[in-house]
Design a protein that fits this description.
By secondary structure, the chain is mostly beta strands. It is 0% helix and 38% strand. The chain has one domain: Jelly Rolls (Sandwich).
Length: 268
């Protein structure tokens, strides 16, 4: 269940600014129950059918909302439930995959909750998940990307900073201002069936750092988002010919210095 701090009844006093600590600054989601999956693409009611490019909204009981973009047509139209979490492996087919974002480019979003403007506060996101067969991943990436239209290829992101599991190698991949993808091999690895936590942290100034299971990568790279860029937690997966099998999401943590800037817009 999402853990957050809320204003208590009667706590707000006239003429007194609320302390920063009463605002949400950490959200923890555990993928404990199946989400409600609904059509997001069309104004008229339509069943979720896995059509390539048709976005769907995944709404969890603990408040997590994810927008999913199928890269090619999907026979599977929702994640599979397991006792460990939710399986986002989807169709087990070469060059098949999905993109998930917390905040979609077609909506206002929630500043400081599901999208973050670089320069307003520091923020981070960490996803804990398992991969059944790592040789089956052309891409299995998590981090931050610019709030933008969905991309069928991760290299087409306008701006991003992610940790990407490619055939068991954990790599740092970044893109700045629609440029070419920069790739750095951390020399850390992911074996079949293992569970790991990938974390990407962004300073208020935009500088990005990374953690794997709470520790810095063995080899890292420097990168900074542009100040003023609006980014959101993003996951991207593409199967290789060997296919990855089950990819079980177990926990997502999203943190920031100030939390919701919609509620705390007067605080600095």
């Amino acid at each position: 269940m999402a853990q957050s701090k809320h204003v208590l009844y009667g706590q707000e006093k006239a003429g007194v600014a609320l302390n920063k600590s009463v605002y949400d600054n950490e959200q923890i989601y555990r993928f404990g129950t199946p989400p409600v999956v609904s059509d997001y693409e069309h104004t008229a009611a339509q069943l979720v059918d896995g059509t390539a490019g048709d976005t769907t909204l995944h709404q969890y009981a603990d408040g997590l909302s994810l927008t999913m973009y199928p890269i090619v047509g999907q026979a599977i139209d929702k994640p599979g439930a397991s006792t460990s979490g939710m399986d986002y492996g989807y169709d087990q087919t070469d060059n098949d995959g999905i993109q998930l974002c917390m905040s979609d480019s077609t909506v206002k979003g929630r500043e400081g909750i599901d999208r973050f403007t670089v320069g307003k506060q520091a923020f981070e996101a960490e996803l804990t998940f398992s991969i059944a067969d790592v040789s089956g991943t052309d891409d299995c990436a998590f981090g931050f990307a610019k709030v933008d239209v969905h991309r069928a290829a991760i290299d087409d992101c306008d701006e991003m900073a992610v940790l990407n599991v490619i055939s068991g190698d954990i790599k740092i991949e970044t893109v700045l201002n629609d440029g070419t993808t920069s790739t750095t091999d951390t020399t850390d690895n992911w074996a079949d069936g293992e569970t790991h936590a990938l974390k990407v942290k962004v300073s208020k100034a935009g500088a990005v750092t990374y953690q794997i299971d709470g520790a810095a990568p063995s080899t890292t790279a420097t990168f900074s988002f542009d100040v003023g860029e609006v980014v959101t937690p993003m996951y991207y997966m593409l199967h290789a010919s060997d296919v990855a099998g089950a990819i079980i999401f177990q926990k997502l943590i999203v943190k920031s210095d100030k939390g919701s800037l919609e509620a705390a817009s007067e605080l600095d």
